[in-house]
Amino acid sequence: MQNETQAIATATKLELIERLAEAGCRAIEATAFVSPKWTPQMADHDAVFARVKRRPGVAYPVLTPNLKGFQAALAAGAEEVAVFASASESFSRKNINCSIAESLERFLPLMEARARRA
């Protein structure tokens, strides 16, 4: 959804997640805890995640590109997060406002924070 040029209503996102669950998907990426400055289409991540109707047997992981996103995801109640990096420099800069190398450096404190929670 982050590649859409127009904002997508929270209700529409929730309906899509619900339809994916109804279709039998067992893992549905619910949202991305990213900066709304760089990815405005995901600015409603807290609202989406809070309102997802969780089904037994379905995982609802979220994306987090850095420690701030990871902390926000945990605060929202996320049980599973996915860390991501971009495959191209231009997409990395546009999507998370840093180079690929910088994004990889950001993973270290995120992994350390995760290790402390284990």
According to DSSP, the number of beta strands is: 3
**Order of SSEs:** HEHEHEHH
The amount of beta strand, in percent, is 5-15%
Low-pLDDT residue spans: none
Please tally the helical runs, counting DSSP H or I stretches of 4 or more residues: 5
Strand order of the largest sheet: 1-2-3
- Rg over CA atoms, rounded to whole Å, is 14 Å
Would you tell me the overall average pLDDT? 89
Structure classification: mainly alpha
The N- to C-terminal Cα distance equals: 31 Å
User: What spatial form do the alpha-carbon principal axes imply?
Assistant: globular
Biggest pleated-sheet summary: 3 strands, parallel
Helical amount: 40-55%
Give a description of the structure.
The chain has 118 residues and is mostly helical. Helix content is 47%, strand content 7%. Strands 1-2-3 form a three-stranded parallel beta sheet. Helix 3 links the parallel strand 2 (62-64) and strand 3. The N and C termini lie far apart (31 Å). 24% of the residues are buried.
Topology at a glance:
Layout: H1 10-22, E1 31-32, H2 45-51, E2 62-64, H3 67-76, E3 81-83, H4 89-96, H5 100-117
Parallel strand pairs: 1-2, 2-3
Key structural traits:
118 residues; mainly alpha; 47% helix; 3-stranded parallel beta sheet; 3 strands
